[in-house]
Structure of ABC transporter domain-containing protein:
Amino acid sequence: MYILQAINIHKNFGSLGVLHGVSLQVQKGEVIAIIGPSGSGKSTLLRCLNHLERIDSGQIEIEGETIAQNNSEGKAVYSSEAKIAQARRKMGMVFQNFNLFPHKSVMQNLIMAPTLVKNMGKAEAEESARLLLAKVGLSQKADNYPFELSGGQQQRVAIARALAMNPDIMCFDEPTSALDPELTGEVLMVMKDLALEDMTMVVVTHEIGFAREVADRVIFMDEGVIMEEGQAEEVLLNPRQERTSAFLSKVLMAR
């Protein structure tokens, strides 16, 4: 059984088609990197998997539970709001721009969801948060506010905050794209450590080196479809599709 599965999903924004029949299966403990040019549908796919956007047609399953599937008219119908909320809790989400609460300290950012959503006691949530801050190398920053942190530190806090809900799957939407090159490494190191711990991860990224080193599979998207997918080395070093090859050449030339 796949931990996460999307079957033939379509997503439109008004008259603009963004995803055109995308299918994706994720095994437990697998790291999948999704690459492709801007506007190819990568981030929209991730948001659909995490139910931040609703698909127009297709099917989504998490841990064998069907969250969305087509009705007789071929349009996606979702499960109850309670089931959607439950599914979302199984998926941690890390965004490009950190999305921390600016008026709350690092500790307050980390304990908010566990105490409100999981009804965890404050002392237990704080203990868990301290362990997570140690994990991302920020033990000394618990009382700081986001504006007092570098971009790399803010993103590491965002990762710790997502982990505070003890998710089964971690989704990353270009987590280093808003960072200066020298801050990128510290975030990628945390993600590499998670991969070594067998965390299931779906990562939209432009970091080709990271994808090659850490991902089990790489998916190349363009114009709302999956153009190519396979083992990381295979796709990145020996792409079968001319479009994949052209994209990789441009990305590598720009570095």
